[in-house]
Amino acid sequence: MNIVILEDEPLAAKRLEALVKSLEPQAVILAKLESVRTAAKWLNENPQPDLILMD
């Protein structure tokens, strides 16, 4: 499963990534993005992920 994390707090993003990997070791974190603007740009330039986690 390909996942993008949209989280503006680096520590929270790191913890979320660790949680995802502990629950689904085969998950691939494609990107950790800090804002809606960077997420929109990333999504326009890359293949769509299976899941986007955001707060």
Structure in a nutshell:
This protein has 55 residues and is α/β, with parallel strands linked by helices. The chain contains two helices and three strands, in the order βαβαβ.
What does this structure look like?
There is one protein chain. This protein is of the alpha/beta class. The chain has one domain (2-54). The chain is flat and about 30 Å long. The chain is built from 2 helices and 3 strands, in the order βαβαβ. The longest helix has 14 residues, at 10-23.
Structural class category: alpha/beta
| Poorly predicted parts | none
Binned strand content: 25-35%
What is the strand arrangement across the widest sheet?
2-1-3
Features:
55 residues, alpha/beta, 3-stranded parallel β-sheet, 44% helix, 27% strand, flat
How are the elements arranged and paired?
Blueprint: E1 2-6, H1 10-23, E2 28-33, H2 36-45, E3 51-54
Parallel strand pairs: 1-2, 1-3
